[in-house]
Amino acid sequence: MSFSTGQIQLSMYSTETGERLKANVYTLENVVNVDGSPRLMSIGQLAMAICLQRAASLEEQIIDLMEDMNANTVLLEDLTAIEQTIVDSGDSFNSSQTYTTMSGTTTTYAAFLQNNGIAAATTGNWNAATIEAVVSSIEDKMDSLNTISQEFLIQLQSLTAKRDQTYDLVSNILKSLNTVLIGNANNL
Q1: What integer pLDDT is reported at residue 173 of this predicted model?
Q2: Average pLDDT, stretch 7-11?
Q3: In the 8-state DSSP scheme, what is residue 168?
């Protein structure tokens, strides 16, 4: 995000020199008028535009993070359901059975577990020892996913705090600009 500075001549004249007054104006990358020309802004407007672009970027990051959190939660739910099914099966389990995931796709238990990093999940009939190894691997994976969920929550809190600070800054800028405008109007 880059900006440039320029000057425009005002319709007002200096009482001391009689010359036309000039004002600094700013343009910000990707901020344009309806006709596509660069929008000329005051320093306050520039600060607000920068803050609003920052807030929009933070919003996108928050949305992406929430999608990742949702995917993590769905995977945890799938692993919990599969673990319960395997434990309830007793001493024998056929991993070639089909499983419909929380997202609606159908796969085999073994394929789902292998695709999600559970190496102990071989295809075929599992005996008690294999079931115990797979359940242990599932629990390790779930512990890892829970840790990731906690990290996601910390990131989410940080991003929302930054976004809120950005909106507070925009609000403060608007208040300051309003105070200046009211003061100027009272001076006229």
Answers
A1: 86
A2: 80
A3: H
Q: What pTM value is reported for the model?
A: 0.76
Assigned domain for 77 exists: yes
Nearest to 59 by CA among 135, 163, 167, 175: 163
Beta-carbon contacts of residue 171 (< 8 Å; ≥ 6 apart): none
Does residue 81 lie in a domain region? yes
* Residue type for position 27: T
Determine the structural domain holding residue 109 and report its residue range: 58-166
Name, in order, each residue with C-beta under 8 angstroms of 50's C-beta and a sequence gap of 6 or more: 1, 3, 28
pLDDT surpassing 90 at residue 41: no
Around Cβ 165, how many Cβ atoms within 10 Å?
A: 14
Do the beta carbons of residue 113 and residue 130 sit within 8 Å? no
Share of the chain above pLDDT 70, in %: 99
CA separation, residue 123 to residues 97, 102, 166 (Å): 10, 21, 53
Structural domains of the chain, count: 1
